[in-house]
Amino acid sequence: MAWQALQQATETIKRAKRTLVLAPENPTPDAMATLSAVLAYLHAHQIPVDGIIPQINPEKIPSYLPARDKVQSKLTAMRDLKIRLDVGRSPIHELAYDVKDSKLEILLTPKSGEWRAEDVQIMPGEDRYEAIIAIGFPDRQTLNSAFREPTDIIHRLPIINLDHDAKNEHWAPINLINLAATSNAEMAMDWFEEWDNKKIDNQIATALLAGLIANTNSFRSPKVTPQTLEKAARLINLGADRENVVHSLWRTRQINTLKLWGRALARLEHDRSRGLVWTTLSRQDILDSGTTEARLDELVNELIAFVPDAKLTAVFVEHDAYTTRMALFAQAPYQANVIGRPLGLDGSHQRASGAIAKPLLEAKDHAVETLRQQLK
Predict the structure, then answer these.
(1) 274 in Cβ contact with 375 (< 8 Å)
(2) Last residue of a domain, which of 127, 144, 165?
(3) Largest alpha-carbon pair distance within the chain?
(4) Is residue 150 predicted with pLDDT exceeding 70?
(5) How far apart are CA 125 and CA 149, in angstroms?
């Protein structure tokens, strides 16, 4: 990631009167931890900031994450409406308003005379925010969907696109993207250290470490490098509460995702001659476990750890009766985005995903046979 992008991001936030930080609906633990760390870090700089995770239940935010009180489930007003009245000839005597049938009525009474239509102007007011930090959004369309209703604010404001995923389209004016990073939390840490590492206190360090641990499956991911471990060590030296993070992540999994993982492991199939591992999950499995499809990446990480010698690991999830979502992970020298291309998957060398327009079992059979041919 270029130093210039880090500097641009810092100067943009310093100049903004108020900043909006967004993470996707049903965020991964990494995205949630990174949003929390960014909120706390900007607050340490006394920069006004709000955090939004659409439809988030506050009880789902782990207690070890800072700035939990600044995370909202929906957006408040994004822009004022300004009404300007020329009172030079006729000063105001009284002002009243009422709401009838969802219509606002404003009653203005002059001291003398009357106002004309040309004395009134209606114009847009100031934006509530002057900058946006988008965490884990691969493209502008995905960010737009987070607002839940049409808005042109994403075309008016400077946006900082913070991500580590190869599928990110570098769509924003300022892109903090590093494909070598293990997580969004690692990206945020690079930014904080370049800006002012003295502002990283023990709570911010804990949030960053949580993102690192969650997205590397406790540092078992092949993407982990010596630099990643050095960063984790620095965070612990800054006071990050590793024990609390590990315990809380495990406890959260006990509540919802362990049920899903249990079903996935029970259906695990292995073609040892080709080093191919796969499993399936129905829509009912997702509903019964109380999780969402957003947890699919975590499941892939667990399967990789469970069968570390697999060349390819695939997970098939029933999205609906006619569509199956597939995630594929490849160990070097294989490339997931190349091997998965005949199936319509895209992503990075290590991870690719996409949808197959077939029912679950039919999609699984078709994809497994295609992968076997690719591995030949």
Answers:
(1) yes
(2) 127
(3) 94
(4) no
(5) 19
